[in-house]
Amino acid sequence: MTVSIALPAPASLHARMAELLGRLSLAFDIANDSPYGKAVRSVVLAVELGKLAGASSEELRDTYWLSLFAYLGCPGVDHEQAPAGAEDDPSPTEGYGRVMSDTSVRLARIVGVGARVVAALGEIYEGCDGRTGPVRSKDGLSLPARLHQIAHVAEIAHDRRGQAGATALIRRQAAGQLDGRLCKVLLDNQAELFAALEDPCVLDRFLELEPKPVAWVDECRMDDIARALAIFADIKCPIFFGHSTGVAALAERAAVQMALSESEKRALRWAALLHDVGRLGVPNSIWTRPGPLDWAQWERVRLHAHYTERVLAPIGALGSVTEIAVAAHEHVDGSGYHQRRSGRALVPAARLLAAADVAQAMSEDRPHRPALEPAAVARELVASAREGHLDGTAVDAVLASLGMETRAEPRSVNGLSERELDVSRLLARGKTNREIALILGISVRTVHNHVQHIFDKLGVHSRSGAAIWLMDHDFAN
Ligand SMILES: [Fe+2]
Fold it and tell me: How many angstroms separate the alpha carbon of residue 247 from the centre of ligand 1?
């Protein structure tokens, strides 16, 4: 029977560890261009095979976590390794196993699955080059590692070539790298095992197989997991070294300036750590491009916010964390991405994350520019607030947390820039577009554009609607 998961707000986060990690494994599928759900399917196959092979409950427990963590460490097809045919230049494979092992082991320790699983992770990554499975002889591997090895090979073959292709491959490897006895168990029970692999409710099956007692995520562990994933996402490409953790630290300091509640601060911290996990799905060749991006490359950059959403949105327990994280690149005037949310659709924590992300990014070297000095960062932030992109209050909070005296005043109103506020007041006083253009010394066409933006941002359709909004919110003067 499927276990129903309570989905409380982050303030009282209490989620199943297996569900959180199972769903987060999507980030690693995206990073590796693997079929979605690969980790979850492999765990199910490894454990079901172990049950049929007579593994003890202790061995099944180790198999479950080993097989899951074995996937939660793969850094993707870029910096640490690049298979033939990948978009980026192939780079040396040396260190691939170490990176996988480091991330996997760190997560395994956070969850507290025990020394045997940690040791088994070392077994399967020893000498691994990212293209093949474990290189250690099957005789030197523990039973959980051997089960993982077969499940890993069978899942990939099944995905690419179906049941017939998978059984043919297992048959061939039974006398070689894979454990012959376990291969025979798989071949003798292939109908049952492949049905498990093809189960449309495989995530439910994965949760049912979790060893008892069920592991839960508390806030402390969530902090650690979010930080581990942030570091993992930043490892993908050297230019992002320290980015996500830097954004989180900056946002948390600025949150004090904005007097966010403890619950909001906690959600903001996790959102800041997780906001760029979607970057794993975009090749490093785009992130490291020294020249301007063309439209197609920009589309791929924008996609990273969508990937972040796809990874986090199904994790109901994260609640507002997801809403904040996926809005990291939105602007209050609707000119950001990827949902083009604006104004009040962006909660204060989301506005703050956007400002902190820009500040942190500007203080880091990028291929097309060196890191900006603090004063230049402040100027850019203030300019962005005045243009209506970043929220003025959020920019002020970030600047204050950096010890900068510069401020973004006057603050934007509902995403309106200072100029749009001027136009909206003249509009509300009955001035025509031509009169407004003359008063402000701008073209009629520019006034027309401002008026369209004002209507969009205030959610009104007429001059009267804008006038009512301004008076209603005490911005008539
Ligand atoms: Fe970012």
Answer: 7
